[in-house]
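RECORD CONTENTS
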Amino acid sequence: MSKPATRRRKKVIEEEHVNHERWLVSYADLITVMMALFIVLFAISQVDEAKYAALRDSLAAGFNPGTQLSSVLAGSDGVMDGMSSQTDRNDPDSSSSLVDADQGLGQQGVNPKFSPGDPVVAAARVELSHLDAIRDAMADALDERGLSSQVTFRMSERGLIVGLVASDVFFAAESARLSPTAVQVLSTLAPTLAAAKEDISVEGHANIVPTSGRYATNWELSSDRATQVVRHLVEVNGLPGVRLEAVGFGDTRPLMSGNDEASLAANRRVDVVILSDAPEAVRALLPVLAASE
């Protein structure tokens, strides 16, 4: 006897539940992105008005040797013709400056292009006074030991340059070995250099006489001279190494041109540069103010 046929139940397809709140996820993402955007816009819109005004005034004055011109930052729709405000404190021969030291100095040594209340000039005077104090401290220490004639001082847009230039006193020809006098001079300068907060660039130079023997070129010779000075300041005098750098320029940046003995001796040197950490516009005025004094 056969089994009765089983009756299949009809499959009921339930209607899929629609999530009417899915749009909230996309909306929340959009709100988050917009909030981040406005935070970034707000952050980059904050301007230090005092620094902005100082930069605007200094650029307007620096690019204005004779006539009244508006600054780019003040809304001028023209461009400065062929002039650059770039100054590089790592370039000893940088000639670009906001002010020409040979032009515009009055009888009292004050540049008439700058008003007495110019904040950039005021800041430059403060920085110059600070560097002058460092120079005077080193000069006094050298005087006490009778070494003042072995060192020169000059002000540049990078800061105070202490020149170790004295014929064969510091380095013999084709040699990077520090002489006893060089060691004495460095030990005399070291306490003041250690007390200063600025970074220091020690820059070696050589004259145009080709090298022979140990050094393949004047590049190696000048680099070794700078390195020996840095090593002495760090290893013997205790200056922190993070504040010093050694650079070799070979014979590319002579102090004196010519092949005479005086020129050759003067260019065989090391410059210890106390790098000013003032803003660029302030540093550009240092040699001008120093010359006016």
Notes: The first helix runs from residue 23 to 44. Confidence is low (pLDDT under 50) at residues 65-87, 92-110. The CA atoms of residues 25 and 31 lie 10 Å apart.
